[in-house]
Specification:
By secondary structure, this protein is an alpha/beta fold. It contains eight helices and 16 strands. Strand 7, helix 6 and strand 8 form a beta-alpha-beta unit. Helix 5 runs parallel beside helix 7. The protein is globular and about 65 Å long. The structure holds the ligand O=C(O)CCC(=O)N[C@@H](CCC(=O)O)C(=O)O and zinc ion (ZN). Zinc ion (ZN) binds next to loops. Pathway: Amino-acid degradation; L-arginine degradation via AST pathway; L-glutamate and succinate from L-arginine: step 5/5.
Length: about 350
C-alpha cells in the first residue's frame, strides 16, 4: 500500500475522476481488490484497469477526455468507474477506463499544447516536432492499451473480443445529435454487431472512413484489431451543464456491455442508419483559413452546389456535389490539420458481417 490515503479515499468514495484531476500529470501505480475479488489496477493518472475474478472473453476499453473540454463523456465514464468501485456494477469482462488528457480537463480546454487525437499510431514520435505533454501522453496511452489487450490471463477464454469506444462531444450542434466515426478497416467488412451496439447507444449516424488516421480509435482498430469507434454524443458543454437525460441509452448500453454477456440490441437494418463516407478532407494550409458560414451551423448541414464554404488565402472551397454535407468545421486547428470534412451519403453495400 504505497498510497494509503489515496487508496482509502478511492475505496470510500470511488471518485477516480477526482483522484485523477488532483494528480493530473502522474500517479504512482497501485492495486487493490474489490469485495467480489475483482482486481483494480491504477496504472497512471486517468488510467484504471479492472480484472474480474471469473474467466472472461472480452477486453473493453472506454475512453473520454481525449479532448479536455468534452465533459459529458467524462461524467459518464466517471460514474461507471464509481459504480464499479462501489459495487453497484459487477463486471462480466475485463475493463480499462481512460481519462485521456487530465491537464486539459482541469483547464477546461480541448488541448494544452496540441490535439492529442492527432498523435496516435506513432505520430507522437515525429522527431521533427517539439515534444509536448500530449505527445508523451499519446505514447503512454498507446502503451496502456497494448498492455491491456496483451495481458489477459493465459487461462482466460479465447478468442477474445477487443473493443474501444472513445467518447467525445462535438464543438457544434449536429443535425444528428449523436454519431460515430468507424475507422478505416482496410477493406475488411464492417461489423453488424457493432452497428447494433451503436444503435443501442442511440447512435444511428455513422461516418465510414476510407483512409488511415492518427486518431485513438483508428490506432486501436488498426494496431490491435479492436472494434473501435470515436463516438460523438452531442455538443460540448462545461461540467454541470450537460443534460444527462440525453445520455440514458448510451449509459444503459455501456453498463450492459461491461456487466452482461450480451447487450440488448435489435437486428442490423441498414435503413435505420444514416451512413456517410468522406468525399474530401479540407486541411488548413495558412493562417488565413476562414469558414464562410456561421458558428451555429450544425454538423451534417448541406448547401447548394457552388456555395462558398471556406477560403484559405487565394484558395476557395465550394460545394461540389449535391448532398455534400459538412462535419467538424474548425478554423482554429493547427496549420496542416483537418479543418473540415465534406461527407456524402453511402451504404455498406453488402460488405458487412
Ligand atoms: O466538433 C469537432 O469539430 C471535433 C469533435 C472531435 O473531437 N472529433 C474527433 C473525431 C475523431 C475521428 O475522426 O475519429 C476529432 O476531431 O478528434
Ligand atoms: Zn473530441
Amino acid at each position: 500500500m504505497s498510497h494509503p490515503t489515496l487508496l482509502e479515499q478511492l475505496q470510500q468514495d470511488g471518485d477516480f475522476l477526482k483522484l485523477t484531476l488532483s494528480n493530473p500529470n502522474a500517479l504512482e501505480p497501485f492495486n487493490f481488490s474489490l469485495p467480489d475479488d475483482t482486481i483494480v489496477c491504477i496504472w497512471d493518472t486517468g488510467v484504471i484497469c479492472f480484472e474480474p475474478k471469473q474467466l472472461t472473453h472480452q477486453d473493453i476499453v472506454l475512453s473520454c477526455g481525449v479532448h479536455g473540454n468534452e465533459t459529458a463523456p467524462i461524467e459518464i465514464c466517471a460514474d461507471i468507474v464509481q459504480q464499479v468501485l462501489t459495487g453497484q456494477i459487477t463486471l462480466k469482462h475485463r475493463l480499462l477506463v481512460l481519462f485521456g488528457n487530465p491537464p486539459a480537463i482541469n483547464a477546461s480546454k480541448r488541448e494544452i499544447e496540441e490535439n492529442l487525437n492527432r498523435l496516435f499510431s506513432g505520430q507522437h514520435n515525429d522527431t521533427a516536432v517539439t515534444p509536448s505533454a500530449e505527445r508523451e501522453r499519446a505514447k503512454k496511452l498507446e502503451g496502456y492499451v497494448g498492455q491491456f489487450y496483451s495481458s489477459s490471463r493465459v487461462t482466460d477464454l479465447v478468442p477474445r473480443n477487443r473493443c474501444l469506444y472513445d467518447l467525445h462531444t462535438a464543438i457544434r450542434g449536429s443535425r444528428f445529435e449523436k454519431f460515430a466515426v468507424y475507422p478505416f478497416l482496410h477493406e475488411k467488412p464492417w461489423r453488424k454487431a457493432q452497428f447494433e451496439f451503436l444503435q443501442a447507444c442511440d447512435v444511428t449516424t455513422v461516418l465510414l472512413m476510407q483512409t488511415p488516421a492518427t486518431t485513438f480509435s483508428y490506432f486501436a482498430s488498426n494496431t490491435h484489431g479492436a472494434d473501435a469507434f470515436t463516438i460523438e454524443l452531442g455538443k460540448v458543454k462545461p461540467f454541470g451543464q450537460n443534460d444527462m437525460t440525453r445520455f440514458t441509452k448510451v449509459c444503459t448500453a455501456l453498463r450492459q456491455l461491461i456487466s452482461h454477456d450480451t447487450v440488448q440490441t435489435v437486428a442490423f437494418d441498414e435503413h435505420q442508419f444514416q451512413l456517410y463516407q468522406v468525399y474530401r478532407a479540407i486541411n488548413k494550409q495558412t493562417e488565413a483559413f476562414k469558414l464562410h458560414f456561421a458558428d451555429d451551423v450544425e454538423n451534417f448541414t448541406s448547401y447548394p452546389v457552388g456555395t462558398l464554404l471556406a477560403s484559405d488565402g487565394e484558395l476557395e472551397y465550394r460545394v461540389e456535389q449535391p448532398g455534400e454535407a459538412l462535419i467538424f468545421p474548425n478554423a482554429k486547428v493547427a496549420k496542416g490539420q483537418r479543418a473540415m470534412l465534406m461527407v456524402v451519403p453511402t451504404t455498406v453495400a453488402g460488405n458487412v458481417v
